[in-house]
Amino acid sequence: LYVEQGLGEGQTIPLVRDQAHYLFGVMRMAVGDPVLVFNGRDGEWYCEISIANKRNGELVCCKQTKPLQMPPDLWLCFAPIKKARTDFIVEKAAEMGAARIVPVATEFTNSERIRQDRLQAHAVEAAEQCGGTYVPEVAELTKLERLLTEWPDGRQLMFCDEAEVGAAKQLAASSAKQWAILIGPEGGFSEGERAKLKSLPFAHVVSLGPRILRADTAAVAAMTIWQQALGD
Ligand code: SAM
């Protein structure tokens, strides 16, 4: 169960209506039952239900079962596409251990607005289901130009482009620890964006194979290739 509060021995955690409904209404749990809880900062904790009402309740934190497990320092930057496919990308990025998820507006981006709170909730659900102790932050929609202008020193960029040939062989040779993957929108990157991205010293242009993948497939494929070459 994901909660916002800090976790520590003896800490009590008030439950909001949705949490109470899930634990007591759906899961049929009662006072004294165990619940594993995380907040994305303090690891995973074994808690027990101390109050169980229909609309609220409380847990007591007993002991830590897992420390916080930070994922590798990998950002997934992607141009938002249709709603369900954007949700899919966020869910899979959180499952696969992205540290940060950055929606990026490119020239051909289909959707100019995102619901950051909804996407963040998807990231929480994905972390919950895969037993993670960390929840990646979903950043606000950022223009590609601004993202590149404010690019942090030392972070490398795996720029995925279907116009590239040959696989990502050179990635494994890198000793950099901070990375980002960039996936374009349905229409791909413009020629101007391609030229700009290829000229950047921190960018490594990568092919994901000879076929043009859907953006959501490309995000999963790119994360898999990155994990294989550089993840732990
Ligand atoms: N029209 C399809 C869609 O609706 O999703 C294809 C979109 S494809 C142009 C979207 C992005 O996926 C590209 O900008 C690129 O970042 C990535 N991509 C897809 N296939 C790729 C490949 N073979 N190699 C590298 N990147 C790829």
TrEMBL record:
The keyword Ligase does not apply. One of its GO terms (biological process) is rRNA base methylation. GO terms for cellular component: cytoplasm. It catalyses: uridine(1498) in 16S rRNA + S-adenosyl-L-methionine = N(3)-methyluridine(1498) in 16S rRNA + S-adenosyl-L-homocysteine + H(+). One of its GO terms (molecular function) is rRNA (uridine-N3-)-methyltransferase activity. Gene3D superfamilies: 3.40.1280.10, Hypothetical PUA domain-like, domain 1 (2.40.240.20). Residues 18-56 form the Ribosomal RNA small subunit methyltransferase E PUA-like domain. Residues 72-227 form the Ribosomal RNA small subunit methyltransferase E methyltransferase domain. NCBIfam families: PRK11713.3-5, RsmE family RNA methyltransferase. Belongs to the RNA methyltransferase RsmE family. This is Ribosomal RNA small subunit methyltransferase E. It comes from Shimia isoporae.
